[in-house]
Amino acid sequence: MHAVGIVAAAGSGLRLGADLPKALVPLAGRPLVAWSVDALRAGGVAEIVVAVPAEQRAAFARALSADVRLVDGGASRTASVRAGLDAATAGADLVLVHDAARPLTPPDVVRRVLAALADGHPAVVPVLPVVDTTVVVDERGAVIETVPRASLRRVQTPQGFDRVALTAAYALLAPDADLTDDAAVVRAGGVPVVTVDGDERAAKVTVPHDLATAELQVRR
Ligand SMILES: Nc1ccn([C@@H]2O[C@H](COP(=O)(O)OP(=O)(O)OP(=O)(O)O)[C@@H](O)[C@H]2O)c(=O)n1
Ligand SMILES: C[C@](O)(CO)[C@H](O)COP(=O)(O)O
């Protein structure tokens, strides 16, 4: 089986508030995107395509090794992944879609996703339980309902797919579709999605505190 990794790295990182695209923000001196590419490689994915902001291609080329292919991302994560998928070589039968913003994803998470794909599941996501009480609020922020959380999960990346199933699901999407992850794309196309264990260390760097936490994690 041949897996291609697509790294979504074309976001700007508004919530992080850095003065360069989030995927280029350094963690222990290396750009987040370089860590995320390494995570996929350490888990057994050799071919990597990275979707980058078009105007930053040169900076990404300097940040990554020459065997990583760069493509121009789009206005949404969905558009960026679609561009990466279009650029993957025909030889790949599996696709792992990963966020550049999850730099410290342990290789075991990647391996668990690949193992479930090898078992014949067409779509696999790593998940974690919800550990806080979870509520619904009204427009003023008042709590109107506590949600039972036993069956809720937080979804991480990399998310793994049979390439034919993912390509077919993307082909069904409207060109301007903007879904929050790729599992939602295949589910919209009727493909069942199974879960494997995620890992707290695969947390997404979204706000400044997440970057500080990642720095501490690297130093341990
Ligand atoms: N047009 C976009 C938007 C997001 N992403 C990528 O999708 C991943 C998850 O998105 P998120 O963490 O929301 O990143 P940003 O969109 O950059 O963050 P923000 O919403 O704070 O601007 C990131 O690795 C980001 O680079 C992408 O490839 N193309
Ligand atoms: C893809 C993702 O990381 C799965 O949890 C998440 O949906 C990305 O969300 P964001 O708001 O675009 O960061």
Pattern of helices and strands: EEEHEHEHEHEEEEEHHEH
CATH homology-level superfamily: Spore Coat Polysaccharide Biosynthesis Protein SpsA, Chain A
- Unreliable segments (pLDDT under 50, ≥5 consecutive)? none
Count of discrete domains: 1
The overall pLDDT, averaged over residues, is 97
Number of E-state strands: 12
- Tell me the span between the first and last alpha carbons: 35 Å
User: What's the main sheet like?
Assistant: 8 strands, mixed
What CATH architecture label applies?
A: Alpha-Beta Complex
The top level CATH class name: Alpha Beta
List the ligand species. cytidine-5'-triphosphate, ligand LQXTBERG
CATH topology: Spore Coat Polysaccharide Biosynthesis Protein SpsA, Chain A
Helix content: 25-40%
Strand content: 15-25%
Radius of gyration: 17 Å
Class derived from helix and strand content: alpha/beta
Number of contiguous helices: 7
Query: Based on CA inertia axes, which overall geometry fits?
Result: globular
Keywords: Isoprene biosynthesis, Nucleotidyltransferase, Transferase
EC number: 2.7.7.60
Family: Belongs to the IspD/TarI cytidylyltransferase family. IspD subfamily.
GO molecular function: 2-C-methyl-D-erythritol 4-phosphate cytidylyltransferase activity
Summarize, please:
The chain has 220 residues and is α/β, with parallel strands linked by helices.
Describe the fold and architecture:
- The protein is an alpha/beta fold and 220 residues long.
- It has one domain (3-219): Spore Coat Polysaccharide Biosynthesis Protein SpsA, Chain A, CATH 3.90.550.
- The protein has 7 helices and 12 strands.
- Strands 1, 4, 5, 6, 7, 10, 11 and 12 form an 8-stranded mixed beta sheet that branches. Strands 2-3 form a two-stranded antiparallel sheet.
- Strand 8 (134-137) and strand 9 (143-147) form a beta hairpin.
- Helix 5 (163-172) crosses helix 6 (182-188).
- The longest helix is centred in the middle third of the chain and has 12 residues, at 107-118.
- The mean pLDDT is 97.
- Residues 77, 99, 155-157, 180-181, 204, 206 line the site of the ligand C[C@](O)(CO)[C@H](O)COP(=O)(O)O.
- Belongs to the IspD/TarI cytidylyltransferase family. IspD subfamily.
- Catalyzes the formation of 4-diphosphocytidyl-2-C-methyl-D-erythritol from CTP and 2-C-methyl-D-erythritol 4-phosphate (MEP).
- InterPro entries: IspD, IspD/TarI, IspD/TarI_cytidylyltransf_bact, ISPD_synthase_CS, Nucleotide-diphossugar_trans.
- Its EC number is 2.7.7.60.
- This is 2-C-methyl-D-erythritol 4-phosphate cytidylyltransferase.
